[in-house]
Every structure is written in C-alpha cells, then in structure tokens.
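[Protein data]
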Amino acid sequence: MADVENEIGQIDGENEKLEQEKENDNETVNDLDASEAPKKKKKKKKKKKNEIGGDGDTGAVNDITDSLEKQSVSDAQGEVGEEGCGDEQKKKKKKKKNNGQKQQTNPPSIPISELFPGGNFPEGEIMEYPAVQDSTTAKDRMTNEEKRALDRANSYIYQEIRQAAEAHRQTRKYMKEYIKPGKTMIDICETLESTARKLINEKGLEAGLAFPTGCSLNHCAAHYTPNAGDPTVLGVDDVCKIDFGTHINGRIIDCAFTVAFNPKYDRLLQAVKDATNTGIKEAGIDVRLCDIGERIQEVMESYEVELDGKTYRVKSIRNLNGHSIGPYRIHAGKTVPIVKGGEATKMEEMEFYAIETFGSTGKGVVHDDMETSHYMKNFEVGHVPLRVQKSKQLLNVINQNFSTLAFCRRWLDRLGQTKYLIALKNLCDVGILDPYPPLCDSKGCYTAQFEHTILLRPTCKEVISRGEDY
C-alpha cells in the first residue's frame, strides 16, 4: 500500500506540473488566431503524453487511481447505506404514501370525500364475466370499444357507489376491532352508525345510511336491531350478523359479515363465506338467477360443523335470498335464490345486486319473531288519505329523512319523535309502510351471513364492497 501511495504522490506532482503548463498553453492559444489554435492544442496533448511516460505508463497510473477512487466511493456508500440510507428510503416512502393526502384518524372521523378530494374513489374487485351460451364473451366485453365508452359514460355512477363502499369498508374495519363480548347491542349499533355517518358525510337524502344496522344473534338470521331500552349484551358464545348499508344519492351499498369469538363456529362461517363468493363468481350478464342459487346451495351444503359433540350439515336458508338494488330502493324486484329452483330470469347489464347467503345449523327456514324494529315505505304506494293528524306528521318526518329507504325506531327517537307507536301502526295498516320483523330459524340453532354488492358493468363485473377483510 505504501508503494501505491508513493506512486500516487508522484502522479499528483506530475498532475500539478501539467496543470501549470495547461494554463500557459491556454494563454498562448488565446493569443493565436483561429487557424493556429488547433495545432497548438495537438502539440500540448502530445507533450502531456510524453511527460507522463507514454501510453503504457498512463494506463497503469489511471488503473491505480480508478481502483482507489472506486474503493473510496464503495466504502462511502457502505457507510451511508448502514447509517443514513434506511432513513432516506423511509422518508421517500412516507412522502410517496402521504402524497399530500389526508390520513384517516382512529376512531375514523374524516369523511371519505375529504380523503379523496379529487373524487376518484377506490375501485372494487374487478372480475371477468363467466362464459354464458349465446352471450358476448367476457374478453370481448373487456376490449370492446363500445362497452368501454359506456363505462366512461357511467363513471359518475361508479364514483358515487365507490364512495359509499369506501365508507362501508372503513367503518367495518373499525367495528371489527370495537365489537367485543360484554358490549350492549345498542352501544354496538350506535357506535357503528355514528362512525358511518361521519365517513359518508351525512347530508339529508344525498348521503347517509341506507338502512338500520342489523346485529341479529344466533338463531335470528336477519332484521334485528335493538329498540330503545333493549338490554341485550353480546356474549362470548354468540354468533352475530352485522348488516348495514351506506348510500350516495341513493346508490346503495348492502354488505354484511358475521362475528363469532368461539372458534367452534369457524366452519359455519367458512361455509357461508364460500357460498357467497360462489354466488359472486357465478353472477353475470345473461346468467339465470336459478343457476346461481343451485351453485350456492351445492357449496353451502358441502360443509359440516361440529358443535358440542354433535355434527350438523350447514343448510342454506331457503326463504332468504339476495336481490337487485335500485336508486333509493334496497329490493328492486329481482331475487337471487340461495337454493336450487327459483326464477329463470336473467341478470342484465348495469344492474346492481346484493349477493348474500345465509347458512344455518337448524331447519334452514326462517319465520317472523320478536319485536319489530325495521320499517320501510312501500316504494309503489301512491297517495293514501290519512285522518289521524299524528300519522300525517310522522309520515312527513319519514318522507323528509328516509323517503323509501328503510329506518328503525331508534332513528325516529334520534329525530326527537315521541309517542309515535300508534301512528306507526296506522301507517302500516293503511299500506304506506311495511314492517320488517326479525327473521328467525329454530331456537338453539346458529345462523351466519356474508354479503357483497356487485355491479354488472358493460365491460366487467365489479365487486364494489370487496375489502381486505372479506
């Protein structure tokens, strides 16, 4: 190494001499005319080569210099990599992640519209359509320019429904951490609804909740939400279905999941989730609704669950089903069965569907039971004369706040309504409102539910409410 340093010292001395001569040559070149300058430069270059010691010596010296410089740079980079590079990369990643965009709080409180100020909300899961006889193939739809143009024309609808979906995703993510045994069902529902109202940025009928939070327990499969004063507490051995909806301008997300704390119910939940995903996979333009139901039942009933030493086959609840969704209309007319049989009606382009399945360890049939909490205005009802003043006043409140969206008694309490039960019954009796009591299978059994909202776009199928959770 000492020899190399001596050699480098000599090179440095030679370089200083060359630099001095270079300055002298430059002064001379400046004094010459344009025709003489190139000749002088050539002489200088030749002189430099001779003084250093010829071509061979120059190559050797340069090799030594380059080698030492590379080693020095390599060592410096190693030190930076160990000490500072990690921090630099973290800063870059952080900057890239934030990108001037607001970050959600915990608990969630920032409206989705503020998190995505540009109005481009996260897309759901994109799936190709299944192959259907006498139908345009999936690949043709994905590449067909006419279909792509229709997609672009409907982009405002997609953004509205995606905004509602993102509010749903973030709400349920928080609630999955919040829901624990020992909490009252009222506390769970009101916390969920308060969170969703903030994220959807509730604004009258333009944005808000699409229907009351269902939190049906065990043998109760659907349509249970606590009324005021309900003392029910969530237990460690309960199976709870959380079903809630959000909407933007009447574009509804209907999405549900099941919570269970005891692992003995895992197979039941797995069966229903698998059945729901099967229904989503089978759905598509020109697909017959009855074919979807048959595939759902086939998958659902391939599962068994062992509870307390007894084995049960998981059954599809045959009188519950999925459904089409329209603007401000949760059930828009078409039903998606979850058992074999049913209508041969076909799905169509630009339709929204709630693909939901219910599995049970009981009879696989539900009936009305318990106290009613859910109500909804009949979508088809025209003008009905009312004699009772309280009924008129209550109907006015319902029209202003819910229109044809479902609501519950807790929501009337929240609006300051009191002593309204007789008026509520009167509105049901005359057909303006429809009551939706809880739906239950046989006592002692357990039921589970999973649900997603899908959109049959011209080019593809979008599972709008899909998230990392399910």
Remarks:
- Residues 1-9, 26-86, 90-96 have pLDDT under 50 and may be disordered.
- The two ends are 65 Å apart (CA to CA).
- Residues 394 and 457 are 39 Å apart (CA to CA).
